[in-house]
Amino acid sequence: QTSRAPATSVSAESCIPAGLRLGPVPGIFKLGKYLSDRREPGPKKKVFSYIFYDFSVTPVFQVRMVRGELVDEAGSSALEWIGLIRAARNAQEQTLEAVADLPGGQIFYRALRDVQPGEELTVWYSNPLAQWFDIPVTATPTHDEKGEERYICWYCWRTFKYPNSLKAHVHFHCALSHGRPFLHHDH
């Protein structure tokens, strides 16, 4: 998510279990900088994990990856494609959350639930990481004249269809918010 190149979607080739951590995320972390309300079609990349069962003592479900990593169909490691995972526009499409063990530490993506084969991987900040980066944690919808939910920037009044698009706008793009901490939605 570091450039405006054609959007690439990353999807699961096989089930990715809840709690699996990917990463660390390489480079400068700017999740959501190019997030848009629209989803532009682009190339797709499939990734998969290798799942094995260990019946040696008790039936235990264990996830193992090739050489300890989740790899894509070409065998490339997560460091080569993790940056291609799109930012989630809302909680309903989110499959991963960005987390860090320590404030300012390395960032990882963690599966929020089992991700099914064919499902796109999308990520957004965990609440502690959002607070660390001064990203708004909440966004309250209003309803337009057609009754559709919209999210309005409390600085410049620009309207968004999705809450995370608003949050990214406030943090990365709103000329009126720069230099000020974000206001909570009730201000």
Automatic annotation (TrEMBL):
GO terms for biological process: regulation of DNA-templated transcription. It is found in: Nucleus. Residues 1-126 form the SET domain. Pfam families: PRDM2_PR. GO terms for molecular function: zinc ion binding. Keywords: Metal-binding, Nucleus, Zinc, Zinc-finger. Transmembrane segments: none annotated. It comes from the Eukaryota. Residues 151-173 form the C2H2-type domain. InterPro entries: PRDM13_PR/SET, SET_dom, SET_dom_sf, TR-Histone_Methyltrans, Znf_C2H2_type. The keyword Metal-binding applies. GO terms for cellular component: nucleus. Its main location: nucleus. This is PRD13 protein. It comes from Semnornis frantzii.
